[in-house]
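Following up on my earlier thread - several people asked me to post the actual chain instead of describing it. Fair enough. Here it is, all 366 residues.
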Amino acid sequence: MADYLIQGGVPLYGCVRLGGAKNASFKLMIGSLLADGESRLLNFSHISDVDITQDIITSLGGQVRSAGERTLFINPQGLKSFTIDKKFGHSSRASSLFVGPLLHRFHKAIFPLPGGDNVGPRPLDRHFAGLTALGATIKQFGDLCQVSAERLTGAEFTFDKPSHTGTETLIMAAVLAQGKTVIDNAALEPEVDDLIFFLNQMGAQIKRSRPRTITITGVSHLKPTIYKIMPDRNEAVSYACAAIATKGDIVVENARSSHLKAFLDKLTATGGGWETGNFGIRFYYRQPLKAVDVITQPHPGFMTDWQPLWAVLMTQAQGESVIHETIHPHRFGYIPGLVNMGARIKLFNPQVTNKAKTYHFNRQDD
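Reply from S.P.:
Thanks for posting it. Predicted structure:
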């Protein structure tokens, strides 16, 4: 792990441009494997999930090459294997998302149970239930899963709790399936819609008939395309909190306020300054900050990813604020570090017997 030496106490000023969304970049890479030829992705982010996804694609026989700082070409035509090596399972959540593309090419996918960050359990049960509804057979051998289907057939499936990776897995499985698939209680995250826009540009027929209902009419093939990945909303919140906490003034050039409504509402309540324009969003220190409570919720609520950043901002606010985490049971691992720096934080972590009912982690099991 790299070490960083940060000289603090300086207000942040300037302009910054967001990279592609973390939770869209690597998923659109996987979605590219559904096409008949080489696709080009613009504005991808240099993150570990992208690197691991690239390694998985090349290990399966596909081709990934970069052109410039933020452009990737993905060509699936050389794919020759349906088995993802075990070494990729513990380091990323990407492996299970390959199911759809591999099923359509090989009628089988073998992948290790995914790992990723250390914020708590993220079960795949709902993914498997959806794939089974489409006609897939699933077997588990230790830490490996095998999904097989000679032909996926459209079906109606309802998530008992929304899951954005589960929703994306079913979308990529259903897009080339025979007939119509209806996903109810689907995830609302903008990154899910970015995948939908991308696949539709390739020739898919996907629409949100209602906010939490996605209808997919299977097509025979998808064509390669050129697509610009949406900007990362977590990165935008990071810059916003850093600027206001240091009494600075920055412009985040390509930030989208429609992706940040829950955060911007809280920022207004605490006294932080922000304004939108053709340039993106300007974030600036406006007045002494007031303590404001937050409760994390799946989109369109206040994201669990934002609460550590909000905690840092609230160390600079007047009064006592409360952060109630409802998504992941282990999202407060950053607290000892802040306390060591002088923050006054108390953690109340009640013991619960059924975390799946208490927390929404299987709403965002990705």
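Residues 116-121, 362-366 have pLDDT under 50 and may be disordered. That should answer part of your original question.
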